């Protein structure tokens, strides 16, 4: 199993969800976060004053899938979340040793 952690722009969530649903991904956890990378924040003019925001709003998607589906999930996220501009995000893929469904005690693939 693999845990895929994707950091994306918030307005891309619906596109990513639709793409993942098409390939059979049934669940994910979405967290609202703030951060920066090479983008280094941005400046805005508000009521005549310049305001610099160093931390930009992003979403983190956590998706656990069977190992053989991981590459397809990564490709789908890349296609759905890409704008071609700086700050599109990153995708991390990590191994998962075990999963336990709390309600039933199921473990491994049956818990997904």
From TrEMBL:
Transmembrane segments: none annotated. The keyword Chloroplast does not apply. The keyword Phosphoprotein applies. Keywords: Nucleotide-binding, Phosphoprotein, Transcription, Transcription regulation. Pfam families: P-II (PF00543). PROSITE patterns: PII_GLNB_CTER, PII_GLNB_DOM, PII_GLNB_UMP. Belongs to the P(II) protein family. Homotrimer. This is P-II family nitrogen regulator.
């Amino acid at each position: 199993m693999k845990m895929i952690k994707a950091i994306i722009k918030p307005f891309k969530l619906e596109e990513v969800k639709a793409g993942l649903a098409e390939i059979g991904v049934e669940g994910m956890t979405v967290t609202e976060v703030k951060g920066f990378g090479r983008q280094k924040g941005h400046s805005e003019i508000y009521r005549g004053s310049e305001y610099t925001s160093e931390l930009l709003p992003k979403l983190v998607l956590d998706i656990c899938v069977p190992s053989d589906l991981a590459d397809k999930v990564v490709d789908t996220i890349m296609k759905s979340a890409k704008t071609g501009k700086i700050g599109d995000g990153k995708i991390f893929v990590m191994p998962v040793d075990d999963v336990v469904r709390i309600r039933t005690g199921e473990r491994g693939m049956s818990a997904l």
